[in-house]
TrEMBL record, chains A, B:
Disulfide bond in keyword set: no
CDD domains for the chain: cpPDZ_CPP-like (cd06782), Peptidase_S41_CPP (cd07560)
Taxonomic source organism: Paenibacillus crassostreae
Protein family: Belongs to the peptidase S41A family.
One GO CC term on file: outer membrane-bounded periplasmic space
Protein name (Swiss-Prot/TrEMBL): Peptidase S41
Organism taxonomic ancestry: Bacteria, Bacillati, Bacillota, Bacilli, Bacillales
Keywords: Hydrolase, Protease, Serine protease
Gene3D superfamilies linked to this entry: 2-enoyl-CoA Hydratase, Chain A, domain 1, 2.30.42.10, 3.30.750.44, PGBD-like superfamily/PGBD
Keyword Ion transport: no
Segments forming domain PDZ: 103-171
GO molecular function, one term: serine-type peptidase activity
Coiled coil: none
Biological processes annotated in GO: proteolysis; signal transduction
Length: 489, 489
């Protein structure tokens, strides 16, 4: 569990979730119970097309641009621009036009699978490093290991590439071969692998059971296969005698509406409301649970990165299943989108906001978010900016870098006294104590060596679940309820 | 001269130049020698309009949006969006689509006149305050004075409005009446004026003659009437026996190409190059001077706000008239736009970049700007941020507000020692000295009273031409050359 928690100082970008930073909530499946997008109950297509006067005006503009602009331009770029511009005129960040390539990534993310070798990678010191191969993926089967450095793909070096560019080279269509050279710690010569790319399922559910009987399930996004995976893991935990559950949707940007409804009804009594979808005319379509409630206590962890489908889950669990919400106010996206991927006829796609969704009690949480029952923020050092290592920091300096160092020292318990960027004697003392602990010469000066040590220790500290204050609170709450239930018996 | 210099801490927005922040260089007039826009030699209009496939795709998109979006939308907003989007696809900030209202403001700015009462106003403490009535304007004739507070227009209160919204209420078509209530210092009751709106010429040229015989001409933008006004002022200065000239185009965003050529050739020997305009195919159209050089020395003041036509002036004066450029690197806009205001048929307008312009020696200064011969920046305190007066600043505090205060104290000569935001004993001492000079109790603490006094004194300091280091350098350079010329005789 929680293996995906990323430290601020590390640039861990998964091969898979890169395209999901702006996330959606597609309505096509659950609203109408149909499998293909753009055909939901709420989706209607008029067929008037452009009116003569509109065609004339847009045509006059395209002529003026083409005839006069001082550079050559692709006509298709102007047409794409026109459609982009119409979407922007809506002033709705969730209604967007996607060209062919973006559309494909978007659909992969909905489906929860992509074609590739299946390795989560990050950029470290300019190298493309494997964080971990995905379970059951071609990469894992071939023997790629965590910490392997990927040197080249099909003879093309990855040196000097941005992570996204490197990832683009590694990915490819199903059935094609990626010949990969790998540098492995302790092995002198690069190792060569020929890996046949395949459909790789995106792991969106991570589960574990603590020794005290509390189960934890993290959902990283709601893809088409997520409900099934969730039920698998939940059943598995229950079989092992789970006494309480912590569900974690922190930084979960959302996903497919039917999927989150399916997950939610695992916990909501039959016939109770999960979510209401309200169309332009105020007509509401209500989703009721077909499931049942659980006998064990549950908390849900959320933060300001929990959006859309995550908020449907949070709202329904809070209002219809007595689940305690722990963490931060959620993101606040209260709309439903449908994607139209065939009407434009060239592989491009329109994602359009078609409705609002409301919590069971009828609240529209858009731009407001959902308040946690128990508010817990991560400490400041979870968000601290890295230290610029080209500058040496010492007594009487005053800068944002000093501030970062102070926040780190404070987070690690070295008590610098002030965290406002002024390097005073208290800061100096804290630096010396830290240096001693790291067997660095205790001169009270933060040079690049000390700064690097500070960041390394901080990352380890952040990655340790014991320092995840939100998680700790979520577990404590479940423990408390387990105790209360036991005393009632 | 220099009456338009604005202090950073004051929000002085002129009634007139508000729409000129993004500025243009229209090419229609001078390039082709024709008076109407969109008919220049370089402007050509193809007439293919939208192709069937393009009409179909854009039409499908508009149908999908109209049929599915969760809010009501104006169809015309989508069409405007489409045209905006095509312009954005060019990735050229100077090619833009303007709706009817913006188009009208744009054309007024080119013409250098607008219809209104003719008062420059600013927002101070929530009040709309007259900076000065424009010479010869209806406002001046009616008796509106500097520092008057405008309370209402035609019975509608201006309280609580943003400056732009207030200005919109004050302006109106020529011949209409604005009934204005004014609060004047020392007068108990509001004063009522009925002012008939008229065309008000925008003053783009400010000239003065120093006692030492050095003339100064500031050009605030290059409107259609600017060359004529410039020649008037120049002739006037020459008649008074001007010995040298400082031309000031700092923060001048540009204007009409034919106008800047006309002004430039007052100083460039006949037959010398002023500017070259290069079209898409590399064909160059060269503008040669029909004027003559001057016998007196000239410097030109410019800064990073000097753009477009200002840079044509700077480049030509430097390369073809031996004028010394003083100040900062200029903005770097090396393109020419033409506006097409009839083709769209509804009062809206397309401004399209149609060509590059090059300096006499063939340099394209786009995104580079022009280097000054003598680099002089204004001191940091010209750009200092105001102090947040809700917080009290004192010893051992550390913040951006402390930094602002230190920069102000330093600029005023109170030597706080450090200007990095840490309030040390040096800062405390400087505050006490300042407080004593202002007859405020010298406690070394910056409360709102001290902060306000500091800002007030700083604004006066900035507005004093004696503290304008670029101007001083420009004058010194002219003086030096006058001396050198005298010694040669």
């Amino acid at each position: 569990m929680l293996k995906k928690r990323t430290a601020i100082l590390m640039m861990v970008i998964s091969l898979i979730v890169g395209s999901l930073l702006t996330m959606f909530l597609t309505g096509s499946n659950s609203i109408a119970g149909q499998a293909s997008s753009g055909e939901g109950l709420l989706a209607s297509i008029t067929s008037g097309g452009l009116k003569a006067e509109e065609t004339r005006k847009i045509g006059a503009a395209i002529d003026l641009i083409e005839g006069n602009y001082y550079k050559d331009i692709e006509r298709s770029a102007l047409v794409d621009g026109a459609i982009n511009g119409m979407m922007e005129a809506l002033s709705d960040p969730y209604s967007t036009y996607m060209g062919q390539e973006t559309a494909q990534q978007f659909e992969e993310s909905i489906e929860g699978s992509f074609s590739g070798i299946g390795a989560e990678v990050s950029m470290e010191d300019g190298n493309v490093v494997v964080v971990s191969p995905i379970k059951g993926s071609p990469a894992e089967k071939a023997g790629i290991r965590s910490k392997d450095i990927l040197l080249s793909v099909n003879g093309e070096s990855l040196a000097g590439l941005e992570l996204n560019a490197a990832v683009a080279k590694i990915r490819g269509v199903k059935g094609s071969t990626a010949s990969i050279e790998v540098k492995r710690n302790g092995v002198a010569e690069p190792i060569k692998y020929a890996i046949v790319r395949d459909d790789v399922a995106l792991e969106t559910v991570n589960a574990s059971l603590r020794k005290d009987g509390i189960g934890m399930i993290e959902i990283t996004q709601f893809s088409l296969n997520t409900a099934e995976r969730f039920k698998e893991e939940l059943t598995n935990l229950e079989k092992q005698g789970m006494k309480g559950l912590v569900i974690d949707v922190r930084n979960n940007p959302g996903g497919v509406l039917s999927v989150v409804i399916d997950i939610t009804q695992q916990f909501v009594p039959k016939g109770e409301l999960i979510v209401q979808v309200e169309d332009k005319n105020g007509k509401r379509e209500k989703s009721f649970s077909k499931g049942s409630s659980k006998s064990y206590p549950i908390t849900l962890l959320m933060n300001k990165g929990s959006a859309s489908a995550s908020e449907i889950l949070a709202g329904a669990l809070q209002q219809s299943a007595d689940v305690v919400l722990v963490g931060e106010n959620s993101f606040g996206k209260g709309t439903v989108q449908t994607s139209f991927d065939r009407q434009l006829g060239d592989g491009s796609l329109l994602k359009i906001t078609i409705a609002k969704w409301l919590t069971p009690d009828g609240t529209w949480i858009h731009e407001e978010g959902i308040k946690p029952d128990i508010a817990v923020s991560q400490p400041d050092y979870f968000m601290v900016a890295p230290i610029n290592k080209e500058k040496t920091l010492q007594f009487n300096k005053n800068s944002d870098d000093v501030k970062s160092a102070q926040v780190m020292l404070d987070g690690l318990g070295y008590k610098p006294g002030r965290v406002d960027g002024y390097f005073d004697v208290g800061t100096q003392k804290a630096v010396k104590t830290f240096q001693t602990s790291q067997k660095i010469k205790a001169n009270g000066i933060i040079d690049s060596k000390t700064a690097e040590a500070l960041e390394k220790v901080l990352i380890e500290h952040i990655q340790d679940p014991l320092n995840d204050t939100q998680l700790k609170q979520g577990i404590a709450e479940v423990q408390k309820e387990i105790k209360a239930m036991a005393s009632k018996k």
